[in-house]
Design goal:
- The chain is α/β, with parallel strands linked by helices.
- The chain folds into two domains: 2-64, 2-Layer Sandwich (Alpha-Beta Plaits); 84-333, Aldolase class I (TIM Barrel, Alpha-Beta Barrel), CATH 3.20.20.
- Helix content is 34%, strand content 18%.
- The protein contains eleven helices and 14 strands.
- The chain has helices at 11-22, 52-55, 108-121, 145-158, 172-178, 192-200, 215-227, 255-262, 271-275, 281-291, 317-333; strands at 2-5, 27-32, 37-42, 60-64, 84-86, 89-91, 97-101, 125-127, 162-165, 181-184, 205-208, 233-237, 267-269, 295-299.
- An eight-stranded parallel β-barrel has the order 7-8-9-10-11-12-13-14, surrounded by seven helices.
- Helix 6 crosses helix 7 (215-227) and helix 10 runs parallel beside helix 11.
């Protein structure tokens, strides 16, 4: 349920509404705009109570039931686009933000070389996995705590914020000490215990779409993060599993405008995991920008042929620099910058 207050509603009127909501055992989330305040009512049985009990309160303008499964991620709660601030820039604004780096942190030499190269090419955020959940238990699982230490060193040396994946509830605090952005991977999109823990963190979070999940399920998962109080939620389309076997995953490019239509959250695209092959990454990246994506998450490795993880889909520094130049024209054509 959404309660829209009148323009200029007093603090006492707003507090009266909040107290009334809480008297039913429900929670609230406030969306305080420059002119109006919107109160989101969170509870499992709100449909059993008439909206009249709120409509008669002083200062209330409208009371609306949200019919979609997802609540806090919807435009009914927040009509304007959410912009996630981060170290002097924002994700979801006019500028398209590129996050780039190796899929996995493998060594100090590899990470430092990658960080320097992607920054020089124009990337704003350094990506790198310290913890790597893999399909096989015998595959490289990441350097874990050592990987976090190396990310911290790269962050300090190159002055770049860092995004890295979080895979365990018990690691949220430790990873948050290093990472400027937490990433919840595709396999964990519906790990609700993890989402709840990350939602309580104050770090922005990239929520990747599960490779077998619908947009509705994706946005409902985002509600777990938002319900925990985390206002820095960034959605990431990374391709879904279909019957097609010529690529690693099918990039659902239509998900970008669909998200823009139904949600206020920023959305970025990971062309690397969808492509599965470096030669396809540039075309998908360009399509994402043209479709309205707010950013890209791209795998770049100094020596892809030696990569321990996903070398085939990683761009070389030269190819990445070339792509960044090409993306500028695409961004300008849709009224954005990069």
């Amino acid at each position: 349920m959404i309660i829209g207050m009148k323009t200029g509603a007093s603090e006492d009127e707003i507090n009266t509404v909040v107290e009334k909501v809480k008297s039913y055992g429900w929670d609230v989330q406030m969306n305080i705009g420059t002119e109006k305040t919107v109160i989101a009512v969170l509870g499992s049985n709100t449909g059993q109570v008439s909206t009249d009990i709120f409509e008669v309160l002083p200062g209330v303008e409208t009371v609306t039931r949200i019919m979609k499964p997802y609540k806090l991620a919807s435009r009914e709660v927040k009509a304007t686009n959410t912009k996630v601030p981060l170290d002097g820039f924002e994700i979801g604004g006019k500028r398209i933000i590129v996050m780039a780096g190796p899929c996995a942190v493998e060594s100090e030499e590899q990470l430092m070389e990658a960080a320097g190269l992607v920054k020089e090419a124009g990337a704003s955020v350094l990506r790198g996995g310290a913890f790597k959940p893999r399909t096989s238990p015998f595959s490289f699982q990441g350097l874990e705590e050592k990987g976090l230490e190396l990310l911290q060193q790269a962050k300090e040396k190159f002055g770049m914020p860092v995004v890295t994946e979080i895979v365990d509830v018990g690691d949220v605090d430790a990873v948050s000490e290093t990472a400027d952005i937490l990433q919840v991977g595709s396999r964990n999109m519906q790990n609700f215990a993890l989402l709840t823990a990350v939602g309580k963190s104050k770090r922005p979070v990239v929520l990747k779409r599960g490779f077998s999940c619908t947009v509705t399920e994706w946005l409902t998962a985002a509600d777990y993060l938002l319900a925990g109080g985390n206002k820095g939620v960034i959605l990431c389309e990374r391709g879904i599993r279909t019957f097609e076997d010529s690529i690693r995953f099918s990039m659902d490019i239509t998900a970008v405008p669909v998200i823009k239509k139904y949600s206020h959250l920023p959305v970025i695209v990971d062309p690397s995991h969808a492509a599965g092959h470096y030669s396809l990454v540039p075309a998908i990246a360009k399509a994402a920008i043209a479709a309205g994506a707010d950013g890209l998450l791209i795998e770049v490795h100094p020596n892809p042929e030696e990569a321990l993880v996903d070398g085939l889909q990683s761009l070389t520094p030269v190819k990445f620099a070339k792509l960044m130049k090409e993306l500028k024209g695409i961004a300008e054509s849709v009224g954005r910058t990069i």
